[in-house]
DNA sequence: CATGAATGAGCTTTCATTCAT
DNA sequence: CATGAATGAAAGCTCATTCAT
């Protein structure tokens, strides 16, 4: 791969975007250019990976020029990091918008599950980009100051849900929010991320609408069972 | 990515390798060269992906020459497909070696879980290569005649285990072997595959020995609960 | 290289700079910008050559913008020519300030030598820029109307010194001022200009203070000998 | 300029060339390719400097391909260093071929002078390449293990000449061989290297055949005078 | 006048692949 | 079968320069 160790300098227009000061036509056009590049890059890196994603392909898809990528993001890697940051930002934002009825923990739990499942389904780029980043052992994300310092809103929310549920005797008290969150994520993510090799491996398509609905129900059921209180579930001896 | 649409014809030595007929010194040396390339390619594709893996890097790591890759595998893509085939072959072989005590379904279930988890842990290349292939939407695996026609031995085995368990009232009868298998796979695969981004996202390392042991136990517990018979688990309404 | 054949028209502010008429605040600021660019360009062209000197590097070092270079100098080449003109102007100016005591020709000669040697030592950019221009076969200097029409003040001065010295029997009469001037220049320029390759070639540093002082004395001695009258120097047969 | 700090790996064919082992047709053709590139690079770097010399221009002039430059020399910088090494090698070789009649020190001295002057005249690339390297402060030469460890053959030869001359009372004994060598080099090198700017500066061409012959004679005369023994030259007080 | 964005040509370098012994 | 040289397309990136406020 050969990724330069340090991403180069900042994007001038970005600063303006943050301060929000300059709102002229030029600045708006510049922002539009930057956004177009970021969107195109998200799509193309998601489809081809970091190495497979071509700079020219991105700039063309953004109806801009290679040069602009370096102008705004410094390097291919800088652009890739920006894509990851935006990815996390949007995901956190979506999780933050989750409005849960804490008075009904069981329903709230189900909503978290369905939100996660649907987020993965509607944002396939989220999955492939994270896989690409894991292929690189998180090398790029580690360089980003904006990612990872704030833990997931959903984990925190889930913690509250569990707390209420335990208090009402609906859930057992020994499962942590993180474990439950990872269980939910794992079941959804793996199924969708690996659908191509799984289909080949199992010898049948697993991404038909019926199969997807079946799996979604299985997730809900499994998570509920994982949280069932001791009096309703006696561990098999 | 730019992958040639059709992989070219196989190399003659490959036939020999399969039949195992020619056992002369040259044939053995040839087989050694081919194997070295395959091993090097597995390592390097796993580390850098298909696009990121360089032909020269592979041939050097195999202490051979670029030319040999084309001789034995026709193209970079042909080599990559061979890597995938070998990957599946070994995995199937390992699953086939699973000796389960069907008289003790619960214990057999646990063994399947631990086998899967340990296979993923000990073969990190298995995970990254599958991710890479899923990035490509299974394009290469679809070209391989040797992969996917025989469904997983583990799913079949698991089917038998479940059958016995249900017969003895240990497991509920409404979960299919495939669902259980996917649950087991999902929990192990996702956790290990995504450990870099998860660590960044959650703000703490999740791949310490303690955390790994904790997750393994959580998988066992969760799968058991997913299979708990109706009389011990009343789904929360 | 790829230098446009014709340098474009000069910037308006340049005219102002020369006439010095407009003395408003803006004009002063403009002059400051122009000067800053010229100084930065001198430094950077001296360090990296014409091709190696980057426009952006210069504008940044001048705390200005690329655009300003084109505004004031028309092109990179125009800026480079302006640098050369300034270089010659300053050198001529310095030579013109030489106040020689013609009553003591021998002392005056020594002063010319020491002036030249010190000018080279204190203005290393002078040397590298001239070398760069010679690499280009004087292409740019030929385009400048302000360089080369007035011959060197020092050569003229040296002519007077020699004349006096010959009249007094101190110098021989067969050496021209130009030859003596070139001898002085050659010994100083070559030693300083080539100190890096010479050090490598000779296997020892030649730019220590001791070595420099030694060479300076050797120049003085050599030039004196070159001018020694016939009665004191009989050419070796 | 931005030169990579470390030149990359070696050229395979070069090793063969040194061992002289493989003398097949392929090896000879390879050597021819390498030599053609080296020759073309010498010419083009001499004409345009390191930054101004384009890789494509070189490969085309050598009737080869860009790729081959990287195959044999690793990088543009590696090629440039190889050019410098060859330059030094040839110069040392030429100096080594100097056959001096030590029985006639004065004649031998003149031969050294004429050899140096003629070498510069006939190898203008020698001068411009050294200037380019000095522009870079000897950065590349410092990386070469083959340059600079063996001091100049001419300096050693000159030392012997002087010794004999002093013994016979032809030369003074206070000038070192190095000083005399540098004087000879300076007068020739400077005159030829700076002929373009000097012509502009002095207002007349200095590279006509007549002027060149005049300067050559002046060098001989000046060096002789620099070596004249004390009894024939009384320094003007 | 200053400033940031845009432009497209062209740069060095790398790639997968093939040729020729 | 092995080996080193050759090939040409294309990659990431940089450059001088111009546009538009």
Folded structure, characterized:
- Four copies of one chain form a homotetramer.
- Chain A has helices spanning 12-19, 25-52, 55-61, 66-73, 76-96, 105-122, 124-135, 153-167, 177-193, 195-202, 209-227.
- The first copy, chain A, is an all-alpha fold.
- Chain A folds into two domains: 23-74, Homeodomain-like (Arc Repressor Mutant, subunit A, Orthogonal Bundle); 86-230, Tetracycline Repressor, domain 2.
- At the A-B interface, helix 2, helix 7, helix 9, helix 10 and helix 11 of A face helix 2, helix 7, helix 9, helix 10 and helix 11 of B.
- Chain A binds a DNA duplex (21 and 21 nucleotides) through residues 2, 12-13, 16, 22, 24-27, 29-30, 33, 54-56, 64-71, 75-76.
């Amino acid at each position: 791969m050969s990724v330069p160790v340090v991403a180069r300098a900042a994007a001038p227009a970005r600063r303006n975007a943050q301060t929000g000061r300059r709102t002229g036509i030029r600045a708006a056009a510049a922002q539009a250019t930057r956004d177009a590049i970021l969107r195109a890059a998200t799509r193309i890196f998601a489809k081809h990976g970091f190495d497979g994603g071509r700079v020219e392909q991105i700039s063309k898809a953004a109806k801009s020029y290679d040069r602009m990528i370096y102008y705004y993001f410094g390097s291919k890697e800088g652009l890739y990091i920006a894509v990851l940051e935006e990815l996390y930002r949007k995901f956190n934002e979506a999780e933050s918008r989750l409005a849960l009825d804490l008075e009904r923990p069981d329903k709230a739990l189900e909503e978290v599950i369905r939100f996660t499942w649907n987020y993965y389904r509607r944002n396939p780029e989220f999955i492939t980009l994270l896989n690409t980043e894991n292929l690189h052992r998180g090398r790029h994300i580690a360089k980003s100051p904006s990612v990872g310092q704030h833990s997931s809103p959903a984990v925190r929310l889930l913690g509250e849900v569990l707390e209420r549920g335990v208090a009402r005797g609906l859930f057992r008290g020994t499962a942590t929010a993180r474990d439950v969150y990872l269980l939910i994520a794992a079941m959804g993510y793996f199924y969708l991320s690996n659908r191509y090799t799984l289909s080949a491996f199992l010898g049948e398509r697993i991404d038909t609408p019926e199969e997807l609905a079946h799996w979604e129900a299985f997730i809900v059921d499994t998570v509920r069972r994982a949280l069932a209180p001791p009096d309703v579930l006696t561990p098999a001896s």
